[in-house]
């Protein structure tokens, strides 16, 4: 699947640790039906309810759902799993597998995303060929990521957008009220976990993301 910046408009990131036990598949299905533009499989940490075997099976199942919907299925920080399920993309953080190594391994077969939270990281990433987009934030404090970088806010996001020609998706504690302000910074869209995963109106939230 060829990368397009529009894929970042309504980007849902989720793992079993982000939803009530037994609800993972249902939540992701509902989000896909509501019209998310990309899905990132990020199942990790002690709160994950999936064993390694179950994780691979679930990834394969959700990868199929994304293919049916025509949206990219992106795996967080696990090149082995991404290759195993023939994912459309891989997303890595600054402290995860080295980005150049990831690009060398899968860059011509998969979409590659990299987390960049400050000017130095963006400038360094700009020199590496094969990265499709950056995930930048956190915009606000977030409870979904224990090792989140310092908050950059919308002003920080705008600064990072100005430093690169690559599309940026905003991340970190984003609420429905932030969506249009995120787009005004020049970012391509928002990547969210709890805003969708913990919503009682997933269709409404996704609609707001698409209309921002």
Automatic annotation (TrEMBL):
Return the EC number. Answer: 2.5.1.3
Question: What is the protein name for this chain?
Answer: Thiamine-phosphate synthase
**Catalysed transformations (reactions):** 4-methyl-5-(2-phosphooxyethyl)-thiazole + 4-amino-2-methyl-5-(diphosphooxymethyl)pyrimidine + H(+) = thiamine phosphate + diphosphate; 2-(2-carboxy-4-methylthiazol-5-yl)ethyl phosphate + 4-amino-2-methyl-5-(diphosphooxymethyl)pyrimidine + 2 H(+) = thiamine phosphate + CO2 + diphosphate; 2-[(2R,5Z)-2-carboxy-4-methylthiazol-5(2H)-ylidene]ethyl phosphate + 4-amino-2-methyl-5-(diphosphooxymethyl)pyrimidine + 2 H(+) = thiamine phosphate + CO2 + diphosphate
Cofactors required: Mg(2+)
Q: In which pathway does it act?
A: Cofactor biosynthesis; thiamine diphosphate biosynthesis; thiamine phosphate from 4-amino-2-methyl-5-diphosphomethylpyrimidine and 4-methyl-5-(2-phosphoethyl)-thiazole: step 1/1
Q: Which residues are involved in binding 4-amino-2-methyl-5-(diphosphooxymethyl)pyrimidine?
A: 40-44, 76, 115, 145
Question: What terms describe the molecular function in GO for this protein?
Answer: magnesium ion binding; thiamine-phosphate diphosphorylase activity
Provide the Thiamine phosphate synthase/TenI domain boundaries. Answer: 11-196
| Residues that bind 2-[(2R,5Z)-2-carboxy-4-methylthiazol-5(2H)-ylidene]ethyl phosphate | 142-144, 173, 193-194
User: What does this protein's record comment on cofactor binding?
Assistant: Binds 1 Mg(2+) ion per subunit.
Q: What does this protein do?
A: Condenses 4-methyl-5-(beta-hydroxyethyl)thiazole monophosphate (THZ-P) and 2-methyl-4-amino-5-hydroxymethyl pyrimidine pyrophosphate (HMP-PP) to form thiamine monophosphate (TMP).
Similarity comment? Belongs to the thiamine-phosphate synthase family.
Binding positions (Mg(2+)): 77, 96
Q: Source organism lineage?
A: Bacteria, Bacillati, Bacillota, Bacilli, Lactobacillales
Sorted keywords for this record are:
Magnesium, Metal-binding, Thiamine biosynthesis, Transferase
* BP GO annotations: thiamine biosynthetic process; thiamine diphosphate biosynthetic process
GO CC annotation? cytoplasm
């Amino acid at each position: 699947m060829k990368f397009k910046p529009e894929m970042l408009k309504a980007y849902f990131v989720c793992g079993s640790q982000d939803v009530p036990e037994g609800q993972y598949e249902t939540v992701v299905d509902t989000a896909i039906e509501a019209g998310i533009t990309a899905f990132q499989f990020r199942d990790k940490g002690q709160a994950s309810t999936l064993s390694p075997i179950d994780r691979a099976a679930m990834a394969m199942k959700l990868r199929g759902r994304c293919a049916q919907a025509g949206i990219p299925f992106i795996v967080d920080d696990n090149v082995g799993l991404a290759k195993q399920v023939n994912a459309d993309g891989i997303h890595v953080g600054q402290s995860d597998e080295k980005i150049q190594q990831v690009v060398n391994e899968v860059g011509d077969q998969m979409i590659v995303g990299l987390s960049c939270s400050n000017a130095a990281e963006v400038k360094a990433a700009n020199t590496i060929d094969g990265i499709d987009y950056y995930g930048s934030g956190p915009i606000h404090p977030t409870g979904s990521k224990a090792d989140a970088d310092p908050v950059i806010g919308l002003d920080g996001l705008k600064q990072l957008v100005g430093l690169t020609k690559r599309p940026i998706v905003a991340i970190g504690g984003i609420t429905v009220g932030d969506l249009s302000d995120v787009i005004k910074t020049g970012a391509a869209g928002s990547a969210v976990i709890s805003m969708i995963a913990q919503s009682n109106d997933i269709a409404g939230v996704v609609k707001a993301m698409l209309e921002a």
